[in-house]
Amino acid sequence: MNIKELLRSAEDILTQHDIECARLETELLLAHILKVGRLYLYINPEQALSQEQIDNYNMLIERRANHEPTAYILGHREFMDLDLIVNEDVLIPRPETEVLVETVIDNLNDSTSILKIADIGTGSGAIAISLAKSLPSASVEAVDISEKALTVARLNTGRYNLLGRITFNLGDLFKPLYGKKYNAIVSNPPYIPSKVIDTLQAEVRDYEPSTALDGGADGLEFYRRLIEESPKLLADGGFLAVEIGFDQAEAVRHLAKKYFKDIEVVKDLSHNDRVIVAKI
Fold first, then answer.
1. 109-120 pLDDT per residue, tens
2. Contact 250, 228 (CB under 8 A)
């Protein structure tokens, strides 16, 4: 069997299992097995494959047919200009979260002073690493309640030689940071209402960590805590920036009005409300 035939067979299998983007995913998985780039598959469609390569590939297709996310199968995911290690201990970074990072950078780029940033619920470290790379004067303290997630974040940070500028803290939200001050507090918290979790795509519901998804009864549990507690840790002129669900802007803005003077809502590329920036 050659590359073209194997890809066609795999695409048929994934389509039967209602897997979206089947063509792209079959290519990514085969390129992973062959240790080549996707372009190679187009240049060499008639290349014959060994039985071992076919068997290994079919095992990956079976995993994907069971709705295991491609990022977990491959063991990595692109985020901004990063290539991040991911596994089932961390949420898979999404393009929407890039809007959060870009918004924080835009709000800090003009600063000439040394910056201190807190990343609450760091997961894979995607936000912390992106900010440290883009803001050379910044140091980041990253917090997560999961030691396994912090292990992944440390691995990713080491790959980009940023262990000297990003520190990691195990704990619940701000507890490891009390008594400190930050120019920016950033978070992509769990924001899906508990009752909605069971209705999510199988890729998310069955594989991604529930602690990174479940935002409580109304999806706002962590926003309440972030908004109430963050002013105590913000330096003069500091701000809180959080990612939100597409329909949560009004609710989160209402919560923030009690503690913050200036509140801005930022939209993503699909024109959905995606980030709230609250300044004291």
1. 877 689 999 999
2. no
